[in-house]
Every structure is written in C-alpha cells, then in structure tokens.
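User: Okay, second chain of the day. Same drill as before: sequence in, structure tokens out.
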Amino acid sequence: MYLSKLFSWILRMILIICIFITMGTTLSSAVTLKVNAPNLVKHVINKTAQESNNRDVQNGLALVQALGVEDALLEKLPKNIKLQTSMYHFYQFTDSYQKEGKLTAENLKLPNKNDQQKTVNDLVLKFANSKLDENKNEIAQGISYYKIFFYGVLVLYLLAILFVLLNKRIAFIPLLLASIGSYATIGYLASQLNTSLQTTIYSGIRISLDSGFSMSIILSIIISVIWFATAGLGKDHMLKKGKHAA
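Assistant: Same drill. Structure tokens below.
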C-alpha cells in the first residue's frame, strides 16, 4: 500500500509540473502580425492625405511625391514590420493601453533607431490611434472581455492542478477546456482583428498563431489520457484492502 501511495504522489507531482508547462506554453505562444513596411507607409500617407480636410497637407504630400522624397524614404525602410505578442504580453499591453490611452512605439516594440524609423512610427501610430479613438467604447469593452477570458484560462489550469492534487479524475476537463478553449478563442480573435485591421488600416496585414498553441493542446491530451487511466490509484488499492479484510 505504501508503494502504491508513493507512486500515486510521484505521478501527481510529475503531471502537475506538466500542467504548469502546458499553461506556460499556452500563455507564452506567439501571435504574430506581419506587414510589408513600404506598402503600409505608402498606404497610410495616401489615406491620411485623402481623409484630411487640410488643403496644405494634401498639397504637401503632392509636392513630396513630385520631388521623389517619398520613394527615397520608402527605399530606406525595412522590408517587413513584424510584431509578436502572446496571451500574457497582450494582457500587459491592455493594461498599458488603458493607462496611456493610446498606442506607443514602446507598446508595439517598433524599431526606433534612426530618423526613417521614427518617421514611420509617427505616421503609423498617429493613423492607428486616430482609428482607435473612433471606436473607444468598443475597444474598452473588448479589453474587459479579454481580461475575463485571460483570468478564466488561469482558473481552469489551476483547477486542473487542484483536482490532480486531490486525486480527482475530472482534472482532465478543466485542463482540456483551458488549452483547446485558448486556441479556439485566440484563433477567433486573431481572425476578427485581422479583418478589422485590414479594413481600417491596410489590407496587407497578416496575423498568425504560433505552433505553441497546438503543442499545448497535444500536451493536455497526453496528460489527460495518462491521468484518466491512473487517477485514484492509491484509493483503489485501499478500497481493495478494506474488502479483503472484511
């Protein structure tokens, strides 16, 4: 009986460590936004000029284009802008956005090493912030929903760990809900955000999910199968012992 109980506790500790790894993989897996920098900047410049009621802005852009300054600027830009976040980092980002009330180059981790990059950052951030200001209420509501979802995922993983500690077979339910639910929800949100950004900012924006989300699902399925097959080992042994004694 002692060996059976010892094995049960060792197995539980191993599976709890695996659940922590799965949770870490879920929360840290990258969501990547990628866009061609020259095309984005050119689009933003043109759209800003078109939407501006300031005649000087429109005339200034026409002059810049006529002198070839715009092309010279675009040639010096990196080919692509690539931004990465994760469930955990996006949670931090929403906190920062709520405090600042706007996007910043630091928020988005945009390169800011030379005049060309600073010019691009200013153009993109001003344009993006103006669009965000138009939808402040929806964004505030979206952030609230995201935070509820983020805490929900944490609670599910912690419930799975608690149930494993208590030797409850149902531990696999919150574990699978956390990993599969995260992938499905983040995939849906990324798709919606991708569509929104393509509509409001630039059609060439692409958002993709890292393979870490799939890995967390695979890990959770493996853990669930092992746990479902072995949960209650110590209890079963004690019950059998009691029946024989009777």
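The chain is about 75% helix and 5% strand.

User: Thanks, on to the next one.
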